[in-house]
Design goal:
heterodimer; A: alpha/beta; Rossmann fold; 2 domains; six-stranded mixed beta sheet; 13 strands; 32% helix; B: mainly alpha; MetI-like fold; 80% helix; disordered C terminus; ABC-type quaternary amine transporter (chain A); ABC_transporter-like_ATP-bd (chain A); nucleotide-binding (chain A)
Chain lengths: 279, 242
């Protein structure tokens, strides 16, 4: 579990990115932090592996105050995936993935073996192993980025808008792939995005931020969707937009669900309690 | 005996100089072309090496931390403004005749391009790459040696290329002190008006500069990381397709 306890981050130029944030991130689930640009979401993420140090307050990982830990050692046991992959351009795909196991003291052979396994995990063809990052597509680069994030077999995986720069089709593919990986590996994933659709698809817990790193609402997608805390949340998740609102009409004794254009989208069926879990 | 009144006589000068260089008596021996060439390369190499010991770590440090940029700009500007011959004279007066005065003057000449090459090389590395290296748990030293320096190598070698070129072209001042090197032919020819010998010295310096520039250009190509090279050729390819 990752715990933020009244954490504040102000920069030397006087701006406060995050103010008095308290947040609990449960283990082995996906928590998505979502908000518009400049709301402090990336700062929150980067405080977990001490790429940014909090100005005040404490951050604990399993009751261990991270400010007492060596930042380099801490980063080696936390996976990190960033936008635009951040791969090392002078190293092959395989060596990029093997970077972290090598830093952790594995031999070259063991590290490369591990890297090859991870290419399978993220659905990359072994034939790409000896290519350079510049020879891959954006989606392939992001898969390599995810493989590198998983390479040290970390409990925690931090993902900073990892699918923000790829086209919508590839993004959907990568999102599905991440869900599959998460079902198999059950990591503690902290995922940052500005895309609420992505947040609702991937998150077990979704944290909606407003300016200054203040939490507008946090909870499961179903909780937030069914009971937006205020107008800000309602407009952010688009609950007021027609797109999310479905209409029903009784036709021939059956309840038909209609989408925003009035096109029939399906039939409405009562779910017996306990029959289907809300996500 | 010679006059510079026509293009024809200039060709005569050049021809005489080339004949002078290839006269067997001028080629070998302790005062021959080969020996002077060796001395010239020795002074140049040693000066660039001394300058590299000072400028490269400093440039890498400034490039990595981003601290002291103002120092680089000021220092390179100030050092470039120093006239080398004047500096040699001054240093020779202070330190006496010998290798030290020209060595120091040429070192001062080589520092700005080396400093600029090292600093600009590290600075040119994509911050996403060095940032990612930090995020996956590299120490600052590992980021510098495993990410920044390999990616900076083409510009780093570019600094050596330009430093060596300037030093080779200027190392004739060693003969002023009076040591050896290719400047010897120029300084020896001057009092006796032996223009073919003087021009021969100048031609040899030019040829040496051009050859060493070509060698460094080749090294620059070799040290460019493969992943970066394929990226470039990929771009070229994309441009052709477009």
């Amino acid at each position: 579990m990752i715990t933020f306890d009244s954490v504040t981050k102000s920069f030397t130029d006087g701006t406060t990115a995050v103010e008095s944030l308290s947040l609990e991130i449960s283990s082995r689930t996906t928590t998505v932090i979502v908000g518009s640009s400049g709301c402090g979401k990336t700062t929150i993420l980067r405080m977990i592996n001490r790429m940014v140090d909090a100005t005040s307050g404490t951050i604990r990982i399993d009751d261990e105050d991270i400010s007492t830990l060596n930042p380099v050692a801490l980063r080696r046991r936390i996976g990190y995936v960033m936008q635009n992959s951040g791969l090392l351009p002078h190293r092959t795909v395989l060596d990029n993935v093997a970077t972290v196991p090598l830093l952790n003291g594995d031999t070259k052979k063991v590290a490369r073996q591990r890297a090859r396994e991870l290419l399978d995990t993220v659905g990359l063809d072994q034939a790409l192993a000896l290519r350079y990052p510049s020879q891959l597509s954006g989606g392939q680069q992001q898969r390599v980025g995810v493989a590198r994030g998983l390479a040290a077999n970390p409990n925690i995986l931090l993902m900073d808008e990892p699918f923000g720069a790829v086209d919508p089709l590839v993004r959907t593919e990568l999102q599905n792939e991440l869900q599959r990986i998460q079902r198999d590996l059950a990591k503690t994933i902290v995922f940052v995005t500005h895309d609420i659709e992505e947040a609702f698809q991937l998150g077990d817990q979704v944290v909606i931020l407003r300016e200054g790193g203040h939490i507008a609402q946090s909870g499961s997608p179903a909780d937030i969707m069914s009971a937006p805390a205020d107008d800000f949340v309602a407009s952010f998740i688009g609950a007021d937009r027609a797109k999310r609102t479905l209409h029903t009409r009784v036709l021939n004794g059956r309840t038909v669900v209609l989408d925003e254009h009035g096109t029939p989208a399906g039939l409405l069926k009562e779910v017996p309690s306990g029959g289907m879990d809300l996500r | 005996m010679y006059s510079l009144d026509a293009a024809g006589s200039l060709m005569n000068y050049l021809w005489d100089s080339i004949l002078w260089i290839f006269t067997p008596a001028h080629l070998s021996g302790p005062t021959g072309v080969w020996a002077r060439l060796g001395e010239h390369l020795f002074y140049s190499g040693l000066s660039v090496l001394c300058a590299a010991v000072i400028a490269t770590p400093l440039g890498l440090f400034i490039g990595h931390t981003g601290r002291g940029r103002a120092l680089v700009i000021w220092l390179t500007g100030a050092l470039r403004a120093l006239p080398t011959l004047g500096l040699v004279t001054l240093l020779a007066l202070l330190l006496g005749l010998g290798l030290l005065a020209p060595l120091l003057a040429l070192t001062v000449l080589a520092i700005p391009p080396l400093l600029a090459g090292a600093y600009a090389g590290v600075e040119s590395v994509d911050p996403a790459a060095s940032g990612a290296a930090r995020a996956v748990g590299m120490t600052e030293w590992q980021i510098l040696t495993r990410v920044e320096v390999p990616l900076a190598l083409p510009l780093l070698v570019g600094g050596f290329r330009s430093a060596f070129l300037q030093v080779v072209a200027t190392a004739t001042v060693a003969a002023f002190v009076p040591l050896g090197g290719l400047g010897r032919f120029i300084f020896d020819g001057l009092p006796v008006r032996d223009y073919p010998q003087m021009l021969a010295g100048a031609i040899l310096v030019i040829v040496l500069a051009l050859v060493s520039d070509a060698v460094f250009a080749l090294i620059q190509r070799i040290v460019t990381p493969r992943g970066v090279r394929v990226a470039r050729s990929g771009q070229d390819h994309a441009e052709i397709l477009r």
